[in-house]
Amino acid sequence: MTIYDLTLAELRTKLDNRELSAVEVAEAYRARIAATDQDVNAYITVCDESAMAEAKLADQALAAGEIAPLTGLPIAAKDIFNTAGLKTTCASRILENYIAPYDATVIARIKEQKAVITGKLNMDEFAMGSSNENSAFGATRNPWNLNHVPGGSSGGSAACVASRQAAAALGTDTGGSIRQPASHCGVVGLKPTYGRVSRYGVIAYASSLDQVGPITRDVRDSALLLQAIAGHDPADSTSIDTPVPDYQATLTQELTGLKVGLPAEYFIDGLDEDVRRAVEQAVATYKELGAEIVEVSLPHTSYAVACYYLIATAEASSNLARYDGVRYGVRTDQAENLIDMYMQSRAAGFGAEVKRRIMLGTYALSSGYYDAYYLKAQKVRTMIRQDFLDAFAKVDVLLTPVAPTPAFTIGEKTNDPLQMYLSDIYTIPVNLAGTCAMSLPCGFSAAGLPIGLQLIGKPFEEATILRTAHAFEQATEWHKRKPEF
Ligand code: GLN
After folding, report:
1. CATH number for the domain whose boundaries are 3-257+395-480
2. Distance 359 CA to ligand 1 centre (A)
């Protein structure tokens, strides 16, 4: 048995019956990170010392019988979550040395359970990107093939879980940033419904779209980690005060009679043949499992990417105003006056993609263009949401590809932002609609790269997608493969 191959659920059993200690687990991960991260570059900060200290505390809790579901389990977090005492960079030069004075609510929740935080993970700067190439700390590489991207923006999170550098990770998803990298790295990524998980202490990109979720090796672990982080938080006014169901309890329910919708607009030209084949195979598996397959339509799908890039950039231009060298961010010492100081600090601190988004968003919000762009995008967003509600009047879940292609090579799309934006064509509509969706492994390309399947659920029906995903996982072996490198 290799410690770092165990899932959260398997580790839980072994910690509980004293086959392993939390310190042994933390040491195994420390060695694994040291041996592999020069290739993968998943971590921005590795928590050697604090992780060992947390593991010791977890062992004391275990000895005292004070066991929470995550006690002693090694979990890493995207570098977008504020962590007291550790750097939180958002993969940006402008926050290179930033140490938040408090923990994000999701970090506080896993710490309360005495999880062991192994480190802070690489990402696209301010979560803007689909390849992890926009990081100020170097690109993360795909553990299945180091010449390929891991996806983004939670690329470090997905690569870390796939390469066994943590048992699970927390990511964020604004337009696909949990699901697309999970798909490209062959792991399970869940974007909960907007409002299900607190965003307090999560560095904001586009506040009406951002949501926190788990990236794990399998579906059961996804349920376990979602359980720990979900629920109302008075510190986040957009978190919803509604009960959180017991996700493990319904995980193994049969699928007989479940209605699975296939949106016609998602199976179009431009969909890679390997991806199409894998997803069609998954449809066949669901039929065998007793699900009823229904064709549905999401008629406004083709407007989603354009709509997203107006709303997300508009919100980003406002959210990123705080990095001015005064309130937040590295301040230049070259400036001649205040305005010059703002301009130089921001010019030096932000990367090219972040600047592009700030300019796009500022333009969309400017007087004279506001009605034509921002307001219009909001109206389109309402129509996209309505498409989903209409489809969900007929079916329980929707089944689609996650990304149009498997992971592309490093450098392939860096000079063509539009091509990069199109890699989120199947994930963005879910964020605009505010509902929940999951990516889970459903096959491999001819070149040996993982392919993900997307299951989209009704708002606050994470339990339904978890059990729909779990049944597929039980019937297939894809999640058992791991990258060898
Ligand atoms: N790739 C999309 C973007 O660049 C989504 C990113 C995300 O979900 N954070 O905006």
Report:
1. 3.90.1300.10
2. 16
